[in-house]
Amino acid sequence: MSLFDDQCAMLRQVAEALGEELREQVAFVGGCTTGLLLTDAFTREQVRSTDDVDLIISVMTYAHLHRFKDALKTKGFKEPSSMDEDMPICAMKLGELRVDLMPDHDEVLGFSNHWYPLALQTAKPVSLGGDLTIRVVTPPLFVATKLEAYKGRGEGDPLSSHDIEDILNLVDGRPELLDEVRSADSALQAYIAAELSELLGNDDFAYAVQSQAGDPDREALLFERLEILAGERG
């Protein structure tokens, strides 16, 4: 089974446990959704391994978060035990699978992602097969949330960043992304352009692109797409 198949199995496990009502209240985001957004079959099989599923949820206070967690507990989710090391405060467990709850307001946990509210509002339905459908963050907002996450936790090191790896996978494996970003909200376009332009000036980012591409022709195409997204090429 490929890593993409593993990711789909993780997403199905969470989606089925949530049930229809809770599924409609969340948006799936993060590395586990990367493969769902890729339209190039070769790139889809190169997605990275991940051990968690991320959900954007709309809660405005810590009390709201606790009520949402209580609803999840009725569906089989559990709080991490003392044996679960390095679990963030937003994490829950579904069996052995870690599920991170990402509030769309930073007042809840003291941190969030600027793009989460729009990402949750505009998430699109994606089929996982059969009659199981989840709401997934759109490709342009996937890029924006990943860029924002990299700024917060990437420590200026694009070579070792999973966020950068996921962005490059999407740029590489979804040619439609260029038109989708062009059609996106102007503030979103400007943010993506500014952040990618800065990254393109980083030598380590260039090495990350080379690693993603694997050969000179694909590397040239990947740089071309990145430069278009950064507004440095028409």
How large, in whole angstroms, is the Cα Rg? 18 Å
Please, what is the average pLDDT? 93
CA-CA gap between termini: 40 Å
Shape: globular
- Whole-number total of structural domains: 2
Note poorly predicted spans. none
**Strand percentage, roughly?**
5-15%
- Indicate the CATH topology of the largest domain: Beta Polymerase, domain 2
> Can you count the helices?
12
Give an overview of the whole structure.
The chain has 234 residues and is of the alpha+beta class. It folds into two domains: 137 residues, Beta Polymerase, domain 2; 97 residues, no CATH class. The protein is built from twelve helices and six strands. The chain has a four-stranded mixed beta sheet. Strands 5-6 form a two-stranded antiparallel sheet. The model has no long low-confidence stretch (mean pLDDT 93). This is Nucleotidyl transferase AbiEii/AbiGii toxin family protein.
Topology:
Blueprint: H1 3-23, E1 26-29, H2 34-37, H3 41-44, E2 52-57, H4 62-73, E3 91-94, E4 97-103, H5 106-109, H6 116-122, E5 124-127, E6 133-136, H7 139-153, H8 162-173, H9 177-182, H10 186-200, H11 203-213, H12 216-229
Parallel strand pairs: 2-4
Antiparallel strand pairs: 1-2, 3-4, 5-6
Helix pairs in contact: 7-8, 7-10, 8-11, 10-12, 11-12
Summary?
The chain is α+β, with helices and mostly antiparallel strands.
Task: Give the key terms.
234 residues; alpha+beta; Beta Polymerase, domain 2; 2 domains; two-stranded antiparallel ribbon; globular
